[in-house]
């Protein structure tokens, strides 16, 4: 094969193999499982924060998220694990989990939140920040920020 013919052959082959990849990369509506798995949000690392035994014993696991506090607990409404930032969305006081009431209560202006962070009673209008939670074996992991 002559050099010129070889280069044309390689060029067409390269274009043919590159074009589908380039088109797929430009498709912002792509929702293939691979694209989901590689998105930056899902690639954030989960961090082990405790064990299911710890949660069962104390009812919650205290977690630090940067300079703020969060806790992991089991939502009594859904029975799902939830990880909730304790910073009140009204003016930033630290809410406290009231297990007997199954809600977070803010000591500053008495806002109340469900275990999943939803506002029950103002003056706060925004829900508490929550984090993705999962278990691996008996480890509990959360996806911070
Ligand atoms: S700071 Fe929490 S209700 Fe005002």
Would you kindly provide a written description of the structure presented here, covering whatever features stand out?
The protein is 28% helix and 31% strand. The model is unreliable at 12-40 (pLDDT under 50). It has four helices and ten strands. The termini are far apart. The strands form two sheets. Strands 1-10-9-4-3-2 form a six-stranded antiparallel beta sheet. It has a four-stranded antiparallel beta sheet with strand order 5-6-7-8, with no helix packed on it. It has two domains: 3-42, no CATH class; 45-143, Rieske Iron-sulfur Protein (3-layer Sandwich). By secondary structure, it is an alpha+beta fold. A hairpin with a 2-residue loop joins strand 9 (130-136) and strand 10 (139-143). Bound molecules: FE2/S2 (inorganic) cluster (FES).
Could you provide a short overview of the structure?
This protein has 145 residues and is an alpha+beta fold. The chain has helices at 3-26, 33-37, 40-43, 52-58; strands at residues 47-51, 61-65, 68-74, 81-85, 96-98, 103-105, 112-113, 119-121, 130-136, 139-143.
């Amino acid at each position: 094969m002559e050099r010129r013919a070889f280069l044309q052959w390689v060029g067409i082959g390269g274009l043919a193999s590159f074009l589908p990849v380039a088109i797929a990369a430009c498709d912002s509506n792509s929702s293939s499982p691979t694209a989901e798995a590689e998105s930056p949000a899902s690639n954030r690392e989960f961090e082990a924060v405790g064990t299911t035994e710890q949660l069962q014993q104390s009812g919650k696991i205290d977690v630090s998220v940067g300079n703020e506090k969060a806790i992991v607990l089991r939502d009594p409404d859904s029975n799902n694990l939830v990880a909730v930032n304790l910073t009140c969305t009204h003016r930033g006081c630290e809410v406290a989990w009231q297990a007997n009431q199954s809600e977070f209560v803010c000591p500053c202006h008495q806002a109340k939140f469900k275990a999943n962070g939803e506002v029950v009673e103002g003056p706060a209008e925004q829900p508490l920040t929550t984090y993705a939670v999962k278990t691996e074996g008996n480890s509990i992991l959360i996806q911070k920020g």
